[in-house]
Amino acid sequence: MRYILASASPRRKELMEQAGFRFEVIPSTVEEKITKTIPSEVVMELAAQKAQDVFEHHGTKDCVVIGADTVVVYRDEILGKPADKAEAYDMLSMLADRTHQVYTGVSLIISKKGQVHTKTFYESTDVTFCPICKEDLRAYVESGDPLDKAGAYGIQGTFAIHVKCIKGDYNNVVGLPVCRLYQELLSEYVSPLSE
């Protein structure tokens, strides 16, 4: 069985490597189109688009394509990647001393023994930040780290000192709920560890 991660995210790649998955990376090049408004539905829709794009161009007889998409949500508003440092600062100021949600959608396209089917799901994790002083916010924004991350932060980096607590899957916040992913693959009788 061939496993393909349809994502260019270095964080997702690292999570799958840490979990011991055997896979290759073929990023999707599809132009993402959002037709949903509920965060859980948005991430599942985008993950499915990525998986479908890679499956159509690179799928084989026995393969599993894994598409994923992550968003940060505060008060039902989706926070994408900041356009610039000013927007990153504003996002983090808004999230400071508050709780927000991180949603990751995962879409699996499983081609096995001539049969192809799709399974799509999402995970949600609550993240609470401590109060953050302006100097710390400015220093983090100036580091450039927030600019390629949804919600303008990475929980696995230097910003971790501002994360008070999380409720749910930590890896989901990084970008991929690997435990849920593995359980879903096992339920389909495909395992990236044993084949």
Q: Can you walk me through this structure?
A:
The chain is α/β, with parallel strands linked by helices. It has a single domain (2-187), classed as Maf protein (Alpha-Beta Complex). The protein is 33% helix and 28% strand. It contains six helices and seven strands, in the order E-H-E-H-E-E-H-E-E-H-E-H-H. The protein has helices spanning 10-18, 39-58, 85-95, 134-142, 170-174, 178-187; strands at 2-5, 24-25, 63-74, 77-79, 99-112, 115-129, 163-167. Strands 1, 2, 3, 4, 5, 6 and 7 form a seven-stranded mixed beta sheet that branches. Helix 3 (85-95) packs antiparallel against helix 4. It is elongated and about 55 Å long. The relative contact order is 0.19. The mean pLDDT is 94.
Class from helix and strand fractions: alpha/beta
- Number of self-contained structural domains: 1
The ordered string of helix (H) and strand (E) elements is EHEHEEHEEHEHH
The global form is elongated
Number of strands: 7
- The CA-CA distance between the termini, in Å, is 7 Å
Task: Give the arrangement of secondary structure elements.
Elements: E1 2-5, H1 10-18, E2 24-25, H2 39-58, E3 63-74, E4 77-79, H3 85-95, E5 99-112, E6 115-129, H4 134-142, E7 163-167, H5 170-174, H6 178-187
Give a quick rundown of the structure.
By secondary structure, this protein is α/β, with parallel strands linked by helices. The protein has helices at residues 10-18, 39-58, 85-95, 134-142, 170-174, 178-187; strands at residues 2-5, 24-25, 63-74, 77-79, 99-112, 115-129, 163-167.
